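Co-fold these.
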Amino acid sequence: MKDVVVGYGAEAVLCGVSLEVPDGSLVAIVGPSGCGKTTLLRTIAGLIRARSGEMRLGRRMVTTHGIHLAPEKRRIGWVPQDAALFPHLTVAENIAFGLGGGRRAARRAAREDRVRHLLELVGLSALADRTPAQLSGGQAQRVALARALASGPEVVLMDEPFGALDPLLRGELRTEVRALLAAEGMTGILVTHDQAEALSIADFVAVMKDGEILQFGPPEEVYERPATPWVATFVGDSVFLPGVWRSGEVHGALGALTAEWAEAPGDTPADETRVTVLVRPEQLELTPSRPATGFAPDHAGLAATVTGVSYTGHDALLQLALRDGTSVTARVAAAGLLPVGADVVVGVRGRVLAYPNAG
Amino acid sequence: MSQRVDERVAELAVPPGTDEPDTEPNSKRPPRVLLLLAVLACAIASIPLVYLLVRVGSSGLDEIVAVLGRPRIPRLLLNTVTLAVSVTAASVLLGVPTAFLLARTRIPFRGLFTVLAALPLAIPSYLAAYGWLSAAPAMQGFWASLLVLTLVSTPYVTLPVMAALRAGTTGLDDVARTLGRSAWRAFWLGTWPQIRPATLAGGLLVCLYVLSEFGAVALFRYPVLTTAIQQAYGSSFNRNYAAILATVLVLLAMLVVLAEQTARGRARRRFGAVTGIARHRIAGLGRWTAPAIALLAVVPAFAVGLPVAVLFARLFEAETLRALDPAELGQAILNTLLLSIGGAVIAVLLALPIGALAARYRGRLVRAIESLGYLALGLPGIVVGLSLVFFSLSVLPALYQTGFVLAFAYGVLFMPKAIGAIRSATAQVPTSLEDVARTLGYGRMQTWWLVTARLARPGIFAGALLVAVTAMKELPATLLLRPTGTDTLAIELWSRTDVSAYGAAAPYAAALILVAAVPAFLLSGAGRGLGRGGAS
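Predicted complex below.
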């Protein structure tokens, strides 16, 4: 849908960002604080002037060679983090504000229908005459969304729309927003610093760091085939181990692991190349070892000792020390929790990813 | 490693609490129209100063040297500086403890004393001086001026310091105590840095106030620059002498502003990082309660209570009532209202582009425009009056001796108050509201009108009211610029104190207090920001 190359400011906050969003999809932009993701969103909205590069919404060119289409002419919906409802207007008036203030009388009838429809859509029909001060955080966010949808924009931009809500409400609203956008057939771009939120809600995820997009793709791809080790750590817990590449396997502290080369699928590095492998904690299989049998661990598993437990409820992360001193993390279902000091046998499920060593 | 450092730097650039900055003020260039309007407003507002300098410049070096060589000059300068410094010091010594008692101790009737502490602002200095004089006709000279001016100007220190104490934290004191410092030492290390900028700002206001003071010092016959300017202008055969004296006074005031700016800038850099939740302990007073109450009562009682009591005692004497002409009084009230409201409108019109610009944008140009807007803080009323007399006589003779010039003088003089009010009112409107309005299809001007101005309206209105109240009490510029035959309350009051007809002045004094009290009452909610509005 568009092709963005943006740089701006005395020091570039966004250094040549390119992004193409398919029509009707929901894209999540994730990244750590200060990586420029909000700046990117504001640039798309036209609230910030891009220094160079060009940007298209649908077939309309909105930014090119120093030409800048004003935000009010871009036909976008904007949902800021704090909802930003106009305090001097009621809920219904807030939504109607998006329908334009000119020729009030002529538009009143249509407006009332449209507003009622939108209120129904976000499930707030009963609150039409309340003032924003009387709304809860979740309700305010819904009104902000309805207001953004009111004028029928081509794209809805959301800046951490769930950031200020409690976790339970957040999950609920997330599903609603997704359904709403799908129902209206609108394209959505959402900024968040919560990678779990990004992976769960979006059709596509863009991972940003230091003003650059490191990876763009469907959530599964981003999680399973992260472009760089940094992306891997950002989107989920990761274990990195050094190893040596030998014909499709990496030999390291966990033994020989079936591996894939992360740089280019299908391609392989030369044998004996030193590499770093990524293992997701949930790929590690643990079985309690029974010292009584004296059964020596074979190639399918390595002996290790639990050195730490971090319990999260539904599952737990275990810190393990392998016999050679390497430390790894494994995710296990909380039900099968092992105490600190327990001896276990570690196995690896599935394929792992190998990255070239840095430098 | 280098990567990690970069990340931390990036995080440092982000204000705590938010994921990413809400606005990027540096990246936004102010719209050209707004910039142009702000520059235009600054240009209009600096007419008096510029014209004064042009006139003095054209009078020739010889004359300037001759004037400055007069034997009276050193004496006038010394008197002015001595009075300004002593009143400032005395106000700080009185104001800071008052603020501390009101903000950080469990004083009885705290609400009442807080209102009382701000009350002297409602009394013009010449009225307080007149009240004291009618009670003790022998009062004269430096000590009388010091006493009355200190009483009247202490709130300029009390209010901002109190606000700073309320917003501040005693967390740093606690840390200092646990690290083995005494209570005093801990206050010095923890709390003082937090209130230092406010104290400086308050001190600056007092100092400028005294420099431009005219009424009280004239009544107490203490010769300073302002009274000398008035005399030179009155004797009218050498008006260049008045203009040169006025330039000296302006330079003095600018020096004070500059000194405060430097001191505050340093303070902000050093103590800008005071963060954390603003939580502070409230101390019990125990056996110190009685002396504390006495301290709190002293300023309002002597600044407001005594003069007002004396005036009202005079007011109901038979002789006073017989001398009173109700029609004249009514006309004076009407004139006062019209002129001060006109001044408020002009001040707000001039201040709107500057305040809006300063609230939303940063950068060297914006800062320069804002400082220019605050320039009038250092412009004594008598200087503006004098310069506008010259200006209207030689450039726009049609306007000479019209109410418009006087209202314009009020507008220029009190524009800083309006800028402060408009700036803070605009800054309180979240920029995200403007962003939303823009994306909803409203242009910049429409957004400003439908959202920003709509939400900032109460603050802007309060600023206008503040200007009107101040203008009602203005004396020196009014004396020079009023159209012949148009008498305001301040003028009527002043002309009657001149002939020592104390009783006859009483009704006008009472009317002035009452008329000014109405908007002051309306302002009482916003009144808390008064000290800050003028100081920032």
